[in-house]
Fold these 3 entries.
Entry 1:
Amino acid sequence: MSSGGSDLDKAIAQLRACRPIPENQVREVCYKARELLIEEGNVVTVDAPVTICGDIHGQFHDLMELFRVGGDVPDTNYLFMGDFVDRGFYSLESFLLLLCLKVRYPDRITLIRGNHESRQITTVYGFYDECLRKYGSANVWRHCCEVFDYLALGALVIGASTTLTPTDGPPAPTNTTQLAPLDSEIEIETLNAANEIMYRYARDSSQASNSQQPSTQSPSASSPTIPTPSNIGPAGTSATSSSSGSPGTPGGAILCVHGGLSPLIDTIDKIRLLDRKQEVPHEGAMCDLLWSDPDEIDGWGLSPRGAGFLFGADIVKCFNYKNDLSLIARAHQLVMEGFKEMFESSIVTVWSAPNYCYRCGNVAAILELEEDGSNAGFVRRSNGERGAGAGGWILGSNVGPNTSNRHSSPGAGNGNGNGNANRLGALTDSVPQRRRDGPGRRYRVFEAAPQDSRGMPAKKPVADYFL
Amino acid sequence: MEANQNDELYPIAVLIDELKHDDVLLRLNAIHRLGTIALALGAERTREELIPFLDESVEDEDEVLTALSEELGNFVEYVGGPEYGHVLLSPLENLAAIEEPLVREKAVESLNKICEQLSQPQVEESFIPLVFRLSKADWFTSKISATGLYNAPYTRATPPSQESLRQHYGQLVHDDTPMVRRQAANNLAKFIKIMPATIVIEEMIPLFQHLAADDQDSVRLLTVDILIAIAEAVPKEQQSSRGVLLTALRSLFEDKSWRVRYMVADRFEKIAKAVDEEVVNRDLVPAFVKLLKDTEAEVRSAIAGQIPGFCALLERETLLHDVMPSIEELVSDQSQHVRAALGTQISGLAPILGKDETISHLLPMFLQMLKDEFPDVRLNIISKLELVNNVIGIELLSQSLLPAIVQLAEDKQWRVRLAIIEYVPLLASQLGVKFFDEKLSSLCMSWLGDTVFSIREASTQNLKKLTEVFGVEWANDAIVPKVMAMGQHPNYLYRMTTCFAVSTLAPALSLDVIEKSILPMMDKLVNDEIPNIRFNVAKSYAILIDTLKQLPEEGTVLALQKAGTPSQGCQKSHELITKSILPNLEKLQQDDDVDVRYFATTAAQGFTDAMQT
């Protein structure tokens, strides 16, 4: 696909200016996108570094703001977790831009399906009407819906570093006390567009560190008090003592899915077996992946949405443990702070539509996962699938033999007393001894694009407005 | 022959079929093809068959009628030229009475267009009677259309007809329904513009007075434009004797409806320019001050927008003593929108006030507004600082404002930071190297690591401009090491800044710097683990090749371009391309990542293409 062709580049430029492209060009792009997406598995494998984004919902100008804050395609790698369309006024431009970028730079951007990428939902929540209004016929909507059927259901990010490089910048005035020192192991960092660090949490090697929830801002959990090198040594640098010498060990994969888990899915391989090329069904595994929500309950519960399920901490931890995941990233639910970690940081909701529906007053966030430098052996193919070099990475396969070594209670987190043989070595290391450390997570929080960058006149009443 | 006839009939048959078709789209298409059909029919049959047919087809969707109204405006040529233009009036008269405003608007537009092409007898015999019929119609829709039809015939009518046109317009002004009065008010300003002063004074001022006293504020607010038109028409020396005008003006300023006051505020400069100086000083200055203190924020915002325009008309003394205090109060207005509006305008006062007064009056206001809690206010001030700079000079400006500017460079709103960045090269050029290194240098470098991608990108542009200002050697000492250090950053998004900086800086750098600092760093980055870095290296190489091709042993490409002396480069620069860049590009062309291969190939292509030509 490297011969992107100037037509496609022109289309991208036109869409970036928020002008729709002609119907025949839409047809062509959708056709190319389908050719590309059909080659992707139900679960796409993505290498870190990557920036994970949640719902967009047709808020085109806020998508542009996202790119301004997070970097442009192809310079920054992106993974969008669905719900590109509906609700906002520019579903068409937003989705087509992302799709054109996908066709032009298939290895730089990954799109997975959200519950709004469906014929039934888009006819009710705006995308269908928007296409009809902008083209006078439903053809474009039909083309887009065909692409929806080919979007992957989830993505697996591998090779993410367990620690972050601290970002330079002054702390936000309100949170100075919570910043972990720069020389400690940074697990979570939250940056706002004000060039300030809102929070920085060190990975705490002597106790369960994953319980901080930035939304609750509990300073005690952030424990910036143990920065001494002797303490971090084991938790961080390379876990050299036990397993392997490769630096920057990966802390397990991150599953990205729009909604959440399904009672019918206990391993990621089961997602791979689904027949996804269809309209989102009303029930079943595929529906659940796109519709479910985490909730503070035990086990499974009925979802008030009428589709998918609610699932509790035990379900998430069990699933992560079984599939060797360090984190599930999902979207689907509005969170006022832009992101929300739950269940001792085993699952996170990322929301990327600031001031949702132009009225909710929320901020948006994107989640950056850094590279750990150990993924050099993997080569991505243009179809998004892994080449032969990575054939061995099948998650189910390195689950079996070690269960006895793992903590039986996921709640115990990574509280390992010896603090030594704590981190997985290379991917081939088959003796994990505790729950995976979460990846280093940098959340960039941003606000809605200002009025005048929306191509609309600022809120200044013109005289004729009264007439 | 008969078949021939059928052929000729065919288009109209199709048209009539399609005009009667159930599908609106087909009917719409048929309307848009009217011109073609008319051409096929010929002028005579168009007049005798098509127009009467259209005359009867006003029962349709508004969308179709709008299209028909528009098409008919261009139909004069199809009915046989201007001498037959009047046949088009009848269908348009019907369309001008339709309920949907859009249809009427188009019909009025087309009628005016046709009127321009009619001869004087045609205007007298056909057009003016049509205007009168519409003006006297029972239903308000026709009357509304009529108000827009007076200008075109008026200039071409005989004096008696002109008089009766004015009389009829007067009736519209006195109409019972506010909808008609509104439109009459709306069009009166234009109507006045084509009349001589005496008639304006005798006949139009009473109409204006009637409208200005209307009990609907939506009518009254429209009289502001009429007032301006009258004031422009009446010679200034006669104005002050026209007491009625001044009374009307005063009552508009103090209207109880804020919407009327908003209109006055919005048009203040225009009003001031239309009236004579005495009125400005006696009446407008107090009114201006009063509007600055209006209870409605919308009004205050509007009048804030008129500050430079109006103040330019005033005498210095008046401005300083009567107006400035009230303007200064706006700095701490309750409404952020008012403060933002003031922010965009206040710099415009600097040229009017001159250096000394700017320092004593404006600078304190700037300082306060730069600290405003609402980012738009800060941004508006910053983006207009250049005007002030021209008046008081950068030195004073920087002395007094630099602390505030430095503070803004760390503003929470990244767009404010962006505005500051764009302003830095100008500051730098005026401040000189030493001052810059002391006060601003670290700031510029910190932007390279900003959390917002756009700021990092803009900061590289900024560095290029700084290099232009301070020269290559300074850049080599102050910028290049820091840029290169970013290439070691563990996060690929920040390493990328180095690539961006190399791409933007390249034309401003000398051969020596490129060889000793840039290319070695690129050698490292070309082996980066992250493909995004590698293809950005390829992109930077493309620009480096382009630069080196033109680079002589001394100097920079940018300097050459400015001097207008293109160069073919020197042997050493070509050697650098072939020895340090092309091998790396070849390697990148074999990369595992498709995007890296693409950008490397593009860069290499750029070189070979240039070699061939």
Entry 2:
Amino acid sequence: MCAHPRAHAKGIYIFMIEINNLVKKFGKKYALDGVSFSIKKGEIVGFLGPNGAGKSTTMNIITGYISPTSGSVTVGGVDVFSEPMKVKKMIGFLPEQPPLYIDMTVWEYLCFVYELKGCKMNKSAHLSEICELVKITDVKNRLIKNLSKGYKQRVGIAAAIIGGPDVLIFDEPTVGLDPKQIIEIRSLLRALSKERTIILSTHILSEVQAVCDRIVVINAGKIIADEKTAKLSEALGQSNRFRVKISGPSREVLNLLKSIHGVTRVTQDGAREGDAFPYIVEYSGSIDIRKMMFRALADKGWPILAMEGVDISLEDLFVKLIDGEEEKR
Amino acid sequence: MIAVFKKEMKSYFTTVTGYVFLGVALLISGFVLSITTFMSADPSSDTSNYFSIVLIMSMVFLPILTMRSFSDERRTKTDQLLFTSPVSIFSLVFGKFLSALCMFLIYLALSLFNFIPLFAFVAEGAAGPNVAMIIGNFIALVLVGMCFIAIGIFISSLTENMFASAVITVATLFGLLLINGISGLSFLQGDGFAEVIRVVIDWISIFARFDAFVFGYFDIPSLIYYISVTFILLLLTERHFQARRLI
């Protein structure tokens, strides 16, 4: 875990967001149990965890929507609880469910948010620029209730970036969108990250890998990993596995696969197709067993019909990370 | 605060709430005024019955104005936008209060048209309507209306369901009306403990102070009372939101 420099006491700060030992109890249940992490200026951090892990709770605390049971949060060197107004001015927040007034048109809504935030810029120029950026110019005179989910999400993002806040906090910005919209939103996030600090929560691993510099993984209210994206991906790459479809007698194929050097686990996976069965083969890091497997199967005359890599899932990630934590102890 | 006020005013007129409130309230008060004065069996220009009925009517209509104020924000999760914006909670509450009060003032202003036939009717006959009494009643309605709105906003901050909010507000207001009657009961007329109860009841009974204005007196203590009750309730709403953040 990173050290927490106290440099901001002198007005200089290294970390844009510093979260220190945050605890939040709902009744007797701990939603957050000692969460600490810091985010540098200009960083885009993925906040990853399964549903109910405490992602939204953490974000709601950073934005001042709810208060923690204990712990502290500073944004830009300012404490969220002693000077909430100052902090709220610095943050653009997109909650899990975009807070839209569905009876307003997009433009009316953006004007309302602009006035609510007390911005003092050239209003129509600023809002038009944002509409262009998130590509909602063509729907700006439509009622929000008539928009599709993807457009509503974008209006939410537009509202968050009004006033040009330094910190953007997006709670699951791509949930419920179709693949094309997801790609658009991701490239938008990358464009926004050029001059801003962004926290992005998600439960999709590939999303953070695609967008973020760093990944903070939370599970059951605790941080279980805080790494550079590249480093985490590398660490995860160690247990390789793939799915392979082989035509041949299943029990003998299974035994043959298990006998290959480097294979750690083989399981039959899915229904047969003619005389072919699909298998999931897991092997340990350094050896590429695919060539050996090909030769062994070719000797027996059992052809490979298909082979594909299997992406590591969030569940696998958690199993690995939690196992890793226990090993360290 | 101004942003919230403008948004609320706009939403009264983009949804049906504003039109229904103004339309129905004006219709009923026009009807009531005519049958209690110049169209009654014994025609007179005495408006006291009219104002008592308008008071009862606002106990039902003002909760309709306030029922959505915070209930709906919570239901649609837009409270997350409001409470994470750089605006104090009190100014959000006050913006909502002002917009509802403004609607009520629009109603009262439009209801002035009701009095044109009343004055016209007098021109032909006997004693004219008591102008001081009419002005007093208007002031009293504004003050009591402020309290009703503050009560409605406080109750709407407690629930996500706007109909529950309306029903509870109406019930509370009628409860207060009943309390007003209690202090007049014979067993509370003695000294000592009975007197304490009577004083407490008089203090919470927002209707008790209505009477001075009704007879055309400008009663400063009552004015201060109504304004303080309104602010206490608005502050209570603000405290409630602060407390909920801590849960």
Entry 3:
Amino acid sequence: MENELRQKAKELLESGQVKQVIGYEDGSTAFKSTPCFASSPEDADRLVWNPTCVNNLAVYLPSAVKQGKVAVAVKPCDGRSVVELIKEHQINRDDVVTMVVPCPGVLNPDALADIDPKTIKNIEWKGDGISVTTDSGEISIPREKAFLDKCLSCTLTDPAVTNIKLGDSPERSPLKDKDAAIAEYEKMSVDERRVFWAKEFTKCIRCYACRQACPACYCKECFVDKNGQVWALKSTDPEANWFFHMTRAMHLAGRCIGCGECERSCPMGIPLTLIGRTLEKDVEEMFGSGAGQDPDALPILGSFDLTKDPDPCPE
Amino acid sequence: MARVGVFVCWCGSNIAKTVDVVKVAEAAGKLPSVAYSTDYKYMCSEPGQNLIKQAIEEHKLDRIVVASCSPRLHEPTFRRCISEAGLNPFMLEMANIREHCSWVHDDKEVASEKALDLIAMSVAKAVKNEALFSQEIPLTKKALVIGGGVAGIQVALDIADAGYKVTLVEKTPSIGGRMAQYDKTFPTLDCAACILTPKMVDAASHPNIEIMTYAEVEKVSGFVGNFEVTIRKKARSVDMKKCTGCGVCYEKCPKKLPSEFDCGLGQRKAIYVPFPQAVPNVPVIDRENCRYFADGGKCGVCAKICPSQAVDYTLEDEMITDKYGAIVAATGFQPWDPTPYTNLGYGRYPDVITSLQFERLFNASGPTEGKLVRPSDHKPPKNVVFISCIGSRDDEHGYPYCSKVCCMYNAKHALLLKEKVHDAQAYVFYMDIRANGKGYEEFVRRTIEKYGAIYLRGRVSRVFQDGEKLIVRGVDTLAGKPVEIEADMVVLAAAMEAQPDAKDLARMLGISTDEYNWFSEAHPKLKPVEVLTAGIYLAGACQYPKDIPDAVAQASGAAAKVVGLFAKESLQSEPTVAEVNEDTCVDCQLCKEVCPYTAIDTKTLTDRAGNPIRTVSCVNEGLCHGCGTCVAACRSSSIQLRGFKDNQILSEIDALAFAE
Amino acid sequence: MSEEQVITKEPETAGAPKEWEPKIIGFLCNWCTYAGADLAGSSRLKYPANMRVVRVPCSGRVDPQFVLKAFERGFDGVLVSGCHPGDCHYAKGNYYARRRHMLLQKFLEHMGIEPERFHFDWISAAEGQKFAEVVEEFTGQVKKAGPFKGVGK
């Protein structure tokens, strides 16, 4: 698969069809790969595809297409971000070549908790889960432990913007219900939730990693960065933090594809995907469609249904 | 540093009775940025206004808050007042301490506290107010009317009579529209041609009207006062200047085709005028069916025979672009095709016809020269069954709406039948008789009582041929029993539906349409001839089924709107419109998506050499109505509504949040 | 800010027991609900005095962020109201408002703000009576929900 990816990338670069290929390459440690920007056929040899390729690379597209046509390696989930970016006019469909990689699931860093990171040599998919090669031999980790939560409930097929399909989609059935995590959360009373989030947002240091990692947060100037105190205080008062996260959530309503990059990048461990998923569930229930499916669909909060939308005074 | 003046009005005792105006004015004087505060019995009176003007000068006030009645009442008054004192009128805010306070509360302490809060909010907003100016928008005093039916003709005549230029564009080769196809009109039974053709001629000879037939609108851009419209004049193949309308060409043309004007009951040639009274009386060549065009130039009879050498096969479509200040859509309707009613045999039995076909059959200029006969055997019919609501009020086969005119033309047809064929009998199957117009109910009664038409309240389940007869099976729900009629002819009152290309034109003009593609008016009650796009108006059945008087009345209404617009020297833009911050706009186009007025477009920013840098949204101030829906949609606050900017509203929230 | 409020709102601590009154902000569209409120006034209908009104051109102008800001600032209740479907002065603004605020209401509940504290409604220029009723009902509802404890703790 990795060879196929490199081969395709090489072809695209050699023929001049694209200016660069965005994929993954080995990072400084074996348990973490890093984004790779390949602009020559030689660069393409560095591309890898393994369970550590976690990042949603769509985040780079709006700026990358300015240099010319781009090919990007996307997992089926990340492909949804590409759909959204096209839908929201941030990239032209013709400026991007999606190379959809077959994805059995990507690494949950917790899976390696019992392994000395210095001893890890290689991580690859094996059987249902992953196999970690260490100095002292090979360790198999089963699927339910190996992969991120979102992967365990994943039922996604090829995104609507697939150009090149690499390998065969792996056969898999979800292990978990998509909403298992929020079902637990929803057991809290309304006031318990208020207290829960007040505590969580107190942790926030306003590093904005969540925003920077998010492919849907492409604004030139975020509302929170506006000069003067237009919307939000830049301080880390719990109330100001609340306003920031709540507003960011509303800005993502109907657009969040649930890649989880916000939560993964949060240094304080704030469970941000919980917000995204709760809101997306509401959007799907109220307006009948979700993010990242159809590049020609109208934006959820930029459209309405005269008769079907929930109404405050239903007839 | 802003210097706000607060003026608290007593409104006699209206406010002062429940609000301690003196104390409130005193407390308001201590609010941040307030340089002066006072109270007065009647702020809106002349002395009250003078008091404001004097204070502006004496205390160098640059923003004014008047705490009095609703701004919906006196905002214009106080705006004028402060602008007379040299301030920009938009430096005014009003605190509504009467309708929203003194009139609805009893407790003086509570009401006074609330009044002070409302003033504090207004002061906070006023501090953020900016001077706003309206712009002068030029105005082209020439109107475009799309559709040359009776509504379009009426619009064109009314505007032209007021002294303005009009272009009347008609898709078919002649103006006249549907009305030209009718024989007589209800309820007066005057002949349609007798009242319509003079109007057609008037339009054609009016010095202010330019008629373009066989032409279609291709592209529309711009906004009120400044539309730029491209019209495609289809190749007529006949030189309009040379043709004398003698008609030799279509007499000699060897190619015969079913006539659209006669609803397929008669024939026309490949070169033709649709009907004898056509305006202009210049034929066109139907190139798709003409032998000359099919056989690579072999036929050419018409060109050879034409005494004035007017036939010109080399003519091509012509594109004409012009500027217009207003556009009126009067594109009408089309009769619905009743084929989906398979049980009624339309298309299967030749004597099951539509009402419009029936109309052509007894029209003196129709295919039978006014002799009412059956299409199958050309014998006059005796028993004729008329069936109402074919495709109307019928969600299953057609549309849920009522087509409004069918009850009346059914009555007319039933009456005229009796006049043409004295021993004939009309049967009318109906759901309800909707005869609500001047003289309409009386007309229906006359048809029933004097002309003996038999009205049966019920639906028809089946029509089938039995020898020469058509057997009509239905039910008379009032008598509560099934009915079977041996008919010679069955006439279906087909619904009116929107033109097949209505949606395309709507998109071009920025008109919204309802679920049936009828054009949507700006307000169902109070703006029935306007649409949401300023400078565009509606006339006739393109909006919804209408009869002739309604269509003509609306046409004159639309014309009055256009004339009213043209009576101005120039247009003033509303100052409270949206503006884009190009530095931060990311071109997600959500604002454009939500704008009800298509006032937002995108534009490409370029560097000094003219190279494109990036695309951003831009607001057409002529189209923007200032609703602010775009502002609430924009995630990066890159679009703002003047007069209601984010920081103005946030200041109000904060002023209240931090109020003591 | 919210701390102060809670302290002053404790009825037991006050000498003369003054009932706690909720602080409510309302965002009303100019053409329907604001006019409806005017009509309530000219009809001299009585309703509780807790709500303060921010006038906006259209319910479509009401950014959900205004509602969030109000809760951040510790308001006990927020009302947003505009023209009924089909009546919007700007034809469609209220339909976008409906999507945003119906969603926001659900979202607020998920995030710990009782649905009783946020009300979205249609009130026309002719519905002075309805305006008075809605304000009365909403004020009662917020009162029942008690002082809002804030989003920060």
